Amino acid sequence: MPAHPVGVAAGAGTRILGSLLSRIVILDDDPIAAKVLRAMLAPHASRVDVLERTAELRTAVDEGCDLLILDLLMPEMDGTELLRSHAPSARAFPPIVLVSGLDDGILETAVHLARKLGFRVEGALRKPVALADVAPLIERTSRRRTGRHASYGTLALEPPERVLEALRGGELFLRYQPQVELDTGRIEGVEALVRWQHPRLGELTPAAFVATLEAHGGARDLAEFVVSRALADLHSLRALAPQLRVSVNVHPDVLRDERFADRVLDALRERSLPPAALCLEATETGIVGDEPETLHGLLKLRMAGVELAIDDFGTGHATLHELWRLPVSEIKLDRSFVAALHSSAKSRTLVGAMIGMGGGLGARVVAEGIETHDVRSALQALGCRLGQGYLFARPLDVATLRQVLMGTLPV
Ligand code: C2E
Ligand code: MG
Ligand code: MG
Q1: Which of 330, 341, 335, 350 is nearest to 380 (CA)?
Q2: Looking at 50-64, 258-272, 285-299, which range is the least confident one?
Q3: Average per-residue pLDDT for the chain
Q4: Among positive and negative, which fits the CA dihedral 336, 338, 343, 344?
Q5: What pTM was computed for the model?
Q6: Ligand 1, residues 154, 177, 190, 193: which to mutate, most atoms within 8 A of Cβ?
């Protein structure tokens, strides 16, 4: 068995910031094991519930939970049998972690089986469960849930209903950050970044509301709003920059949804834009781990020519094999590596390797978070062609972007 078959021990010891999940449910008939696990998970969720009977599972899922920890060996019904019986509603289930005292081979097979049945399996834990194995699992779940880094933080300022109302009521708008060619400063594309013009609090960045929206059924509506607005703007901006491309951040769950794919393709047709003028960005953490074949919507979009970027590259847990199987057109180097470039030889080695890997995969490489001339030069020396960051421009409103493209404002 490979060392980290399902990402169990990778990144052990990762620091978890605050309480990240709302509710974790443990299904384990062994009260002592359940109690120990509960104590380990308690710092990472507002609520951890233990179920002893399989019959209680469906109700717990319907009530809402972020993560389900399932013991594979229970006298009443074994874990895989239980999953098989719930397979028709697998999509309604939260991510699952399988736990077992059985050997690694069996655990790995169970993980494959659960994925084949349509469940999202976040990982596996071998009993006795070690504290160091729990933290990375929670962090992965949290990242996937928000589509972002846990460290990004969420400061839910408003309740979900209010955020959904803002989306429907037209209080959200887009800013655009240019992606420039490092050698020439020419703008090749722009990344759309959503903002909330809050009537009382002023302009809010995504950290204040996107996770809330996405956790409460607003992910697809948000993505459709952003795509539609971004394509409308792109249509008019192309009069100034005919080859301009727009990138849109999309929650990975939305990429699975074929209805989203259809809406995107319709929107491109309505604006007479080539599919390659749109690039969808998803985090590595969000789209790997599942079989690429289950990303139906994404495949449809890629086949039509829409591009896919892996955002915050290098911070997730993708294996080379998973990356190789994903139809990636762009890799965005996370700013945590980029910012350290001129001061850290280690960071230079890593960034150099990621640039080489991107090139080898035939993907465009874009460095994020370029704030200084030193970092820009270091990237150029490593052969990176494209980048974005405050050195070139902060996220701009569309009117300012238009002036920049007309050449009346410097980038
Ligand atoms: P991201 O996609 O990685 O976007 C880059 C973030 O880095 C943006 O923050 C941008 O303003 C910021 N940034 C750009 N250049 C620099 C720099 O030189 N230095 C520093 N320190 N920061 C820089 P923002 O706009 O707050 O967005 C945060 C995250 O929220 C984004 O990260 C993206 O993942 C998410 N997001 C933004 N718009 C959307 C959206 O429409 N839908 C979804 N689902 N997520 C979105
Ligand atoms: Mg992005
Ligand atoms: Mg990023």
Answers
A1: 341
A2: 285-299
A3: 85
A4: positive
A5: 0.69
A6: 193
Distance CA 347, CA 365 (A): 16
Q: From the CB of 174, is ligand 1 less than 6 Å away? A: no
211 lines ligand 1 (CB under 6 A): no
Q: Which ligand is nearest to the CA of 388?
A: 1
In which residue are the tokens 């495949």 written? 299
pLDDT at 6 over 60: no
Q: By mean pLDDT, which of 87-91, 148-152, 171-175, 370-374 is the weakest?
A: 148-152
Span from the CA of 333 to the centroid of ligand 3 (angstroms): 7
Contact 280 CB / ligand 1 (< 6 Å): no
150 pLDDT higher than 50: no
9 band by pLDDT with thresholds 50, 70 and 90: very low
